[in-house]
Design goal:
mainly alpha, Four Helix Bundle (Hemerythrin (Met), subunit A), 4 helices, 153 residues
Length: 153
């Protein structure tokens, strides 16, 4: 089942970012490796907002803001909650679409290249993975080891 495989991949990469959100010290949530980049919290809110953007696109809706507001999500708990919700809702939506839904055409507002639901969710999974990679740097420059890089017990 194609949709189930995509939902598993989505949940796996989303889970890695959720693990980071839960693990990273709250007092470092506003840390930026350099002044011009997003803080750790802003990265998490960007991922969650991006998840909702991809869900909007999959439904043929005009996408909302890509970045959720740091002013609205002030605490680690609030950020973790919205991130988890975005991953859970994305997985449920992929499963709901099913294989037939994933085969339907989807239009990206930033590209003229035609795609379908599978392509859209591949792009979404890639987006989360890109930010996971960036977030590893936030860990390492703080002398921390990301959860996925720790020895398994």
């Amino acid at each position: 089942n194609h949709s189930e495989a995509l939902a598993r991949l989505w949940t796996e990469v989303g889970g890695k970012v959720i693990d980071m959100a839960e693990d990273f010290p709250e007092e470092k949530y506003d840390f930026k490796p350099t002044p011009e980049v997003r803080s750790f919290a802003e990265q998490m809110l960007h991922v969650a907002g991006g998840n909702y953007l991809f869900m909007d696109l999959a439904q043929g809706k005009r996408p909302g803001a890509e970045d959720l507001s740091r002013e609205k999500y002030k605490t680690k708990a609030e950020i973790v909650a919205v991130l988890k919700k975005s991953v859970e809702e994305g997985a449920a939506f992929i499963r709901q679409q099913g294989d037939a839904g994933l085969a339907k055409a989807v239009k990206f507002p930033w590209s003229q290249t035609p795609t379908n639901g599978t392509g859209l969710w591949g792009e979404a999974i890639g987006h989360v993975g890109e930010h996971y990679g960036q977030l590893v740097v936030y860990y390492r420059v703080n002398g921390l080891v990301p959860p996925a890089s720790r020895p398994r017990r």
